[in-house]
Each structure stands twice: as C-alpha cells, then as structure tokens.
Amino acid sequence: MNPHREKVSLSVVVPVCNERENVRLLYHAIKNVLEGMEDSYEIVFVDDGSTDGTREILQEVAQKDVRFRAILFRKNFGQSAALAAGFSRSRGDIVVTMDGDLQNDPEDISLLIQKIQEGYDVVSGWRKNRKDRVLARKVPSRIANCLICSVTDVRLHDTGCALKAFRREVIDRIRLYGELHRFIPSLARVEGARISEVVVRHHPRRFGRSKYNLSRTFRVLMDLFSLNLFLKYLRNPLRLFGKIGAYFLFVGLLVACAATYLLLTEKATFFDLNVLVTLVFLLFVAGFQFLFIGLIASLIVKTGERRGGTLRPYLSYQKRGKDG
C-alpha cells in the first residue's frame, strides 16, 4: 500500500518559515517522541516560502524517512494557509500542530493525546511559564487573549499557543484564511466541539528570529471583527441585515415625516423638498435591499442545513464515541 495514502492514528503538522537551524533538531525530537508511542504516525512540515535553505533540508529528510512529508510553498502565504495545507494533506485521525522554532516541547504531545482520549475534540496548550520578552510578546499576547476570549466566548488561558490537538472530524470542517489560525478553537466551537486545555512547557528561542510583531495587530483585529459577526449571525444572517435595513427604513421614515411637515407648512422651497424626497427614496431602497439580502442569506443557510450531508462526519463521530 502506498504509505502516502494509508491512514494513520496521529499527524503532527508543523508550519515553518526560515527556520534552517531548527527544523532538523525539531524533526528528530518529534520522531523520538512518536516512536515511543504505540500509535502509527506521520510528520508533516509545511514550508511557507523559506529563503534560507529550510526547504532543502526538508526535502533531504523526506527522501530518507517515509513517515515524513514536506509541503513546499512557492512564496510566503502566512501561517493560516500553511496550517490549512497541512490539515488537508495529513491523514491522521488526530492532528497535532506546533511551532517550528523549538519553543514548543514535543514531549507534551502525549499530554494532548491523553486529553483527547478523555472525549474532547480540541485540546489547546497553555504556556503557563512562557519564555518570551514581557513587553514585546507577553503583554500584547495577554491583551489579545482577553479580547479574543471575550468576543468568542471560548475560555482559554492561552489562545495563541501553537501546540494544539484536534480530532479529524472537527478539523475537516474548519476553513482557514487571513489570520484565523489564532481562532481555530472558536471555529471548532461552532461545530459543537468540546474544548479543553493542558499546561505545556515553553522554551526560550535558541535560533532564528520571531516572525511575530505589532504590525500584525491590525490584521488580527479585523479577523476578530469578522469572526465575531460569523459567530453571532451564522445561523440567522437576517438578524444582521434586517437590523441594518430597519435603521435605513426608520431614518427614511423620519425624513419623510419632516418633508411632509415642511410641505404642509410651506416652510421649504421646491429645491429643499426635491432633496428630501430623493433622500427618502434612497433610504427606503437601501433598507429594502438589506432586507432582501438578509432573506436570501437565510435561504442559503436553511438550504444548506436541510441537505444534511455536511453534518454526517461529525454525527458519525458522536455515534462512534457513544458506542465506545
């Protein structure tokens, strides 16, 4: 059987970018841990457009180890795209993700697996004793963590930890873009996933430089805003578009009343009335357009729910878990 087609129990997905000094050490560390486990496994490294020789090292390792797979991007597309590629090409029933900078400890993979086996669908690492600079990394991370938890209602101590474990049934239903890799537990919650966390080790960076900086803050905030809308109005988008349409109709009604009053009292010129009537027309058209958009979006959502086929993978997992 082709080893690249055979199902395995565990996949470890590692996105990397310009980590030449780290990838070989990390590969051996992961391999040593997984060989001590009874489950079948594979290691998937996704090179996100490295230019320092990282991809050549990954190709060399892939030629020697049949359980190692390298996905090579032609250019840098970001961590979300790298994880999405790793998820789609991995074959494990359980998928573990981690950073490629040696700060996550492969020894903690067993902790995540144990928690998954307790019945959880997503297990996130908690870097309780984080080895990073306070002002540059710890403080912004804590602020972002509080903001993300308050918006998404997923209570984790460390949403930014890359060391996570997922059941295949859940990860197959998540679509990543932008900076959404930070919000995978929140996206999993939409699918009804059970989420937990475990305390994991965190090591100081030994080689290379961090890819994270404050310039990403704006993109994260925009993705958080879009995710908030997604979580609130996924099942009934008419609530969002209906509210916007109602505001336009309400303002249009006020302007119409004002125009009628000015017409009856003869306190406005013909030009003034013409402007007001035009404004009323535009406001009413906009209001009804948003209402129709909301109705169409709701029909799309309801049609998708009635098809039922999209729910089978998760429902089959729930049944299998109940039967033991």
In short:
The chain has about 325 residues and is of the alpha/beta class.
How would you describe the overall organization of this protein?
The protein has helices at 20-35, 54-64, 79-89, 109-117, 134-152, 168-171, 184-190, 217-233, 238-265, 270-307, 312-323; strands at residues 8-16, 41-47, 68-72, 92-97, 122-126, 164-167, 195-199. With 324 residues, it is α/β, with parallel strands linked by helices. It folds into 2 domains: 8-233, Spore Coat Polysaccharide Biosynthesis Protein SpsA, Chain A (Alpha-Beta Complex); 238-323. A 7-stranded mixed sheet has the order 3-2-1-4-6-5-7, sandwiched between helices.
Strand content: 5-15%
Radius of gyration: 26 Å
Which geometry do the CA atoms define? elongated
Question: What proportion of the residues is helical, as a percent range?
Answer: 40-55%
Which series of helices and strands comes N to C? Answer: EHEHEHEHEHEHHEHHHH
CATH topology (level 3) name of the largest domain:
Spore Coat Polysaccharide Biosynthesis Protein SpsA, Chain A
CATH architecture of the largest domain: Alpha-Beta Complex
Mean pLDDT: 82
